[in-house]
Design a protein that fits this description.
The chain has 421 residues and is α/β, with parallel strands linked by helices. The chain has helices at residues 72-81, 100-113, 136-139, 156-169, 192-197, 205-221, 233-244, 255-259, 280-292, 313-316, 327-336, 343-358; strands at 2-12, 15-24, 27-32, 41-44, 49-52, 54-59, 84-89, 117-120, 173-175, 188-189, 201-202, 225-227, 249-253, 297-298, 372-382, 401-411, 414-418.
């Protein structure tokens, strides 16, 4: 197919230009004003914004093993509706992708059902149990990186060995940092809300302690290292210091950690995730981190569960919320429209930086594959989970009024989402 996208503000080379975009097959063939094509489908996006497709390096699509929560089909369609053209799927599946054979089950489903680029992680340890290393070498060519997300690797020796092998394979370790010995049965942040409402808290050291350990190991081994879902102010400082020392480290945080804190908690499972919403000072430290480059990117940690699993309150509900359909609008409304960061910075955090670190090729340039998304930034609406494409419905942003509607997403030249179709 051939498409001519007319009259939009197009993000290219780090800035916005008023331009048309001509796509032929899978490739952007021209950028410029007043482009013409006799045989293209013309899409008028006057006044709208065209961004490089968003890249989410941290999603849970639950298949194989837990398709009642989400599938590759529903997850990838939901991602497309949120403006994403590339996502990386975490390995807490059944079977866990800890061998070539187990990984193949997921790859076959991706090939059959994904509507965008879905790139799986291989697990660091067999069954994510932390006792034996997975077949890292065998899985290397078909995985984006290695992670045990959902669980922290408790053994320093095991993590060091994984880093040494990953370094040799040219792969990155992507770490869920959580010290089990410090959890003490906690399930929300160990802050004021927990104390006032009689809940068991999770201390911040359970996150920043393992990060500090892994920074040391990354420095020793030279292995590139990426930290998942940073939530605590101490973690930001550990990572800032490591970067200043030249450690090959990046990190992500989630939209909810930038917009909410534990003062926003309600006695509802849609406010329960891991790591938890922390204190106001943690949220402000994360915002400073994205401003000064300590926090490199934003990833949703999209983690759908069934209604039953999320309807048991803060204490007993499953950990995890959905976010892939609401991330841009939530961040644009709360960070860009309020003047905290620029729109250009948000595109860096959601597309440019993850693409650079993880090796995706997502740019709007002549000769590049057409991975892009179109947004109407003036469109205002209320977040309604019942309208989600994802099977998950648990979001702390239910009922929030936001700006920024995704009108169309194109992956490798194919229209994979169009509003109202």
């Amino acid at each position: 197919m051939k498409y001519l996208l007319k009259g939009a503000n197009v993000y290219t080379d780090g800035k916005f230009i008023l331009s048309d975009v001509l796509v032929d097959g899978s490739v952007v063939v021209a950028l410029g004003k007043c482009l013409q094509s006799d045989d293209a489908v013309v899409l008028d996006y006057n006044g709208c914004f065209i961004f490089p497709g968003f890249a989410d390096v941290h999603v849970h699509f639950r298949e194989p093993g837990f398709s009642y929560k989400e599938t590759i089909a529903t997850g990838s369609k939901a991602a497309a509706a949120g403006g994403y053209t590339t996502v990386c799927t975490m390995p807490n599946l059944n079977p866990v992708p800890d061998s070539v054979e187990h990984l193949r089950e997921q790859l076959d489903i991706i090939k059959q059902d994904a509507v965008i680029n879905v790139l799986p992680y291989g697990s660091i340890t067999v069954g994510q149990l932390g006792e034996e290393l997975s077949d890292l070498e065998g899985m290397a060519k078909d995985t984006i990186a290695f992670s045990d997300d959902g669980r922290g690797v408790q053994s320093e020796e095991m993590m060091k060995e994984a880093m040494l092998i990953s370094k040799k394979l040219g792969k990155m370790i992507v770490a869920h940092c959580e010290d089990n010995s410090l959890l003490c049965g906690g399930y929300i942040h160990d802050g004021e809300y927990a104390k006032e409402h009689g809940h068991k808290g999770i201390c911040s050291e359970s996150e920043w302690g393992p990060i500090a350990r892994d920074v040391k190991l990354s420095k020793e081994t030279g292995c590139p290292y990426h930290v998942c879902h940073v939530s605590a102010k101490e973690s930001v400082e550990v990572i800032r210091k490591a970067k200043a020392e030249g450690v090959d480290i990046t990190c992500e945080t989630g939209p909810h950690y930038l917009v909410l804190d534990d003062s926003c908690l309600q006695e509802d499972g849609r406010f329960k995730m891991n790591p938890p919403l922390r204190a106001k000072e943690d949220r402000l430290a994360l915002i400073e981190g994205i401003k000064d480059g300590t926090v490199d990117m934003i990833a949703t940690d999209h983690a759908p569960h069934s209604l039953e699993e999320k309807s048991k309150g803060l204490e007993k509900s499953a950990m995890g919320i959905v976010g892939i359909e609401t991330s841009f609008a939530t961040l644009y409304t709360n960070l860009v429209k309020t003047g905290v960061i620029t729109l250009e910075k948000l595109i860096e955090l959601m597309s440019v930086n993850p693409s650079k670190r993880f090796g995706f090729d997502i740019e709007i340039k002549e000769g590049k594959n057409a991975n892009l998304t179109v947004f109407d930034l003036e469109s205002k609406y209320e977040i309604d989970p019942e309208k989600f494409i994802s099977k998950g419905r648990a979001t702390p942003f239910k009922g929030a009024e936001v700006y920024g509607k995704c009108l169309m997403t194109m992956c490798d030249g194919t229209v994979v989402w169009k509003d109202n179709e």
